[in-house]
Write a structure and sequence with these properties.
The chain is an alpha+beta fold and 511 residues long. 44% of the residues lie in helices and 23% in strands. It is built from 16 helices and 15 strands. It has helices spanning 8-12, 19-28, 48-54, 58-61, 72-76, 79-90, 134-156, 176-182, 186-189, 200-204, 207-218, 262-314, 322-354, 366-383, 402-419, 474-484, and strands at residues 32-37, 92-100, 106-117, 123-132, 160-166, 220-228, 234-245, 251-260, 361-365, 387-390, 397-401, 424-432, 435-441, 488-493, 499-506. Strands 10-12-13-15-14 form a five-stranded mixed beta sheet, covered by helices on one side. A four-stranded antiparallel beta sheet has the order 1-4-3-2, with helices on both faces. A hairpin with a 5-residue loop joins strand 2 and strand 3. Helix 12 (262-314) packs antiparallel against helix 13 (322-354) and helix 15 (402-419) runs antiparallel to helix 16. The longest helix has 53 residues, at 262-314. Bound molecules: adenosine-5'-diphosphate.
Length: 511
Amino acid sequence: MIPSQSEPAFAADPTLLSDTNFSLLVDSVRDYGIFMLSPVGVVLSWNKGAENILGYRPEEIVGHNFRCFYPAEDAAAGRPDNELSTAASTGRYEEEGWRLRKDGSRFRAHVVVTALRDPDGKLRGFAKVTQDVTERYRAEQALRESEERFRVLVEQITDYAIFMLDAQGRVSTWNRGAERIKGYRAEEVLGKPLALFYTPEDRAVDRTGTLIEHARTAGVAHTTGWRVRKDGSRFWADVTLTALHDKSGRLYGYAKVVRDLTDRVEAEEQAKAYAAAKEAIEARDEFLSIASHELRTPLAAALLHLQGLNRQVARPLETWNAQRLALGVKLALDSGRHLSALVERLLDVSRIATGRIQLELSEFDLAAVTAEVVDHLRPFGEQFGCRLVMQPSAAVVGQWDRLRIEQALTNLITNACKYAPGTDVEIVLAQEGERVRLSVRDQGPGIEPEHAERIFERFERAVSSSNYGGLGLGLYVTRQIAEVHGGSIRVESEKGQGSLFIIELPRHAAV
Ligand code: ADP
């Protein structure tokens, strides 16, 4: 604030500003060298600060030319004279440069030279204020060097694209990694917007704008996605964008680090494809060994019965035992039927693999058909100690492929008997509007959640083949049957809590 009135003490005592007081004041200043020079640069006065900084005592320097403060090369280049002539012509000269102390050591000086003229304009000399700024200069220099080293380091990195964007999102620096990964040279991208590296799809939805906005508000944005090289090829990029603020908190740009993960992604995909192929081959091999084993059992039985029959018929006709022959034929036929059912199932799988199962739709009462299947399987259940219980159901008339529905239901009920022996197996049919629900519940070991999806896949089993025979195809085929009818199948189960298999079908399957 400018005082409206002069302070009384100051006004009352103009002698305070006397030359003596002034030189006392100047002399007491220790951090600034303050001294007078004649028009040609001869030192006329010397304060404590000058003595501290330059190391000369007044009697050693007063009367000598100030040129001795300059390093030899600067003195030879005429810099002291330039300094004075500039001050003389413009009134003032200011610079920062190297000066010499009395002991010959250098220091960084900030100097201000002011020309002193008498009232009629004649140059009387110069006032010179010198400050030792070596420490500050060295600190700044160290910072500059470290920044430069860091810049060179970043510049040389080739594995990462590291560059800066200005506050508007335009490229402002470019390193070797950026050149290598993106294929542009610095001069081709400096000043260009970030969108240059984005795919047309991403540009259409202003992906760069969203990313920059995220970095601006959250401080950092991290993302992965396809980016485009100069030659138009794409690479899978891992991107980190960090907002940069100056000391006052003002946003001045963004640092962007990009890694090209294309090789890694490709390698991972290859590894995944390889693992899947390996798994498929292993599953197929296991299936072939299970299938041959499964086929061999009824085949061996059929052969055994046929050999028995063969032995009998080789004997004289009178010795033939009609009953034994009939039993042998029946057992051989049973094995043959079993064999044929297995082959049929394998054929189903190849039918599914080569195209869709052909449905032969007809209208019938699903409740009646379910009851028939259950009745037919009752003796089978008894072999496993299972009681098949069908909840009474009203007629549910619709359009399905009868044989396929019987097959699906048979698969679920025989599985229940196989995996939950000695328990009740409950079969429920319910109609819900245009959909029907057919469910088979058992009290067996149940299925762990991680297997709940897998068991519907081809050759997949959740039990070891040594404990339970089976091809691992029943549920696969059952699911296909449900799906070609426009329906679905799922299992609800917890380990140890039994399983509930549910088939849902539309009442009228469309082909
Ligand atoms: P398979 O019975 O020939 O192995 P499936 O496709 O019919 O083939 O069944 C696949 C697997 O699902 C079986 O190996 C078994 O682990 C499991 N599974 C099927 N039904 C049941 C059930 N009711 N209880 C427990 N596990 C079952």
